[in-house]
Amino acid sequence: MKMRADQTGDRGLPMPLWLQGALETAQAAIISALAVIAPIIAVWATAGFQNSSFDVLARLAGQSWLLVHGVPLELSAAGSDAAGNGESGVLSLVPLGLTLLPFLLAWRAGRRLARASYTDQLWQALLGSWVVYAAFGTATGFVCRTPDVGINPWFAMLIPLIPYALGMVIGARREAGSWSRLIGVDAVDWISRTSQHSRWAGSYLASAGKAGFVATVSALALAAVLLAVDLFIHWNLVVAVYEALDAGAVGGAALTIAQLGFLPNLAVFALAWTSGAGFAMGIGSQVGPLGTAVGPLPSIPVLAAIPSGPLDYAFVALIVPVLAGVLAGWWFLREGENHFDEWLSIKVRARWFTATVSTLVLGVLAGLAAGLLSFGLAWLARGSAGIGRLTDIGPDPFWTAVWLAAEVAVGVVIGYAAGPWLEREQAASVEDAELVSRA
């Protein structure tokens, strides 16, 4: 991007990269803020708020913007007793679907800045953009705090940087094509200077970690399919809650957008449900394939689809992470990086022993990787709704990781052991297809 000296088309001085980063970030912050303000204005236009004063709605929009970025809000409600005691809590349930908006805007900004920067100059653009975004979050937190909604200024300054900086770095890496072009460090050259054994160990551990990633993504995709099936089965209950709320067209649309924002959270809830760990919908509640016990829930349509009653065959859902592990084991076989098995075969001649040990070690490593990833997903998806029973919503990260790691490990062992047979079946199918085409 260049600054023109005049309107003749002659180029003037180049725009400083820090200024270009600041402008890109200001644009992303404004767009994400408008996306939050739009449904609030729509509800206000239909007299959907009890207090419709401008300052209240502006603070509500700022608080929503901060929550979308992961900033917890400290809520307090005035008590009804003579002493004036109040109840307080933290609203920390983040709509991950809406968090994708600033992430994608940052991804676009990162690509544009990487295109305009040399390798050793990108830090200037990133620094300028991150300073502006931190200032935007700090100002929003300072202006939008109220006696009922407290906002930690440090959280408002630093936490919005996490999704934004992550999206910007990924976008810049996507545009550069490699880390060496992005930051000037050639990882391939650094790895080539290490010993052969170190390279083999590194490629083996990296492939095992990738297998855990494949298993986690596969399990999450299958859990999302089960979630869609569950919503389809209980669609009549969901519609009944919509009709009971009678929020009108605009109110119903705003409610639907809010629920779509929590769709990734619900997919992670479904992943925890299929693992057997389940998830909570309030203090003392549990929703899982082995049993469901929940108390009164708010009138949110999507919550009507929570499986309840006798679930005689729900335990079959536990096979979902195992199937994902089978896919990961097969993928690892096709990757061809089982250097631990090769090293063990050189040291020990008993093939039955080396094959068994190497496959079990692979299952443990891939299961640990999947467990760590599921721990992070569960931690991101869970949270508190503020005040009352619903201060514990979502899966327990530790038990979700333990259950999923164990099931994925079993699936990886099965998939890697059955991989050669699957490869032969695939090769036979290809040969049959070629014969048919020739005939």
Automatic annotation (TrEMBL):
Q: Which InterPro entries match?
A: DUF6350
Top-level division of the source organism's lineage: Bacteria
Membrane-spanning ranges = 21-45, 90-110, 122-142, 154-172, 213-233, 253-275, 287-307, 313-333, 353-381, 401-419
- Print the keywords alphabetically: Membrane, Transmembrane, Transmembrane helix
Q: What is this protein called?
A: Integral membrane protein
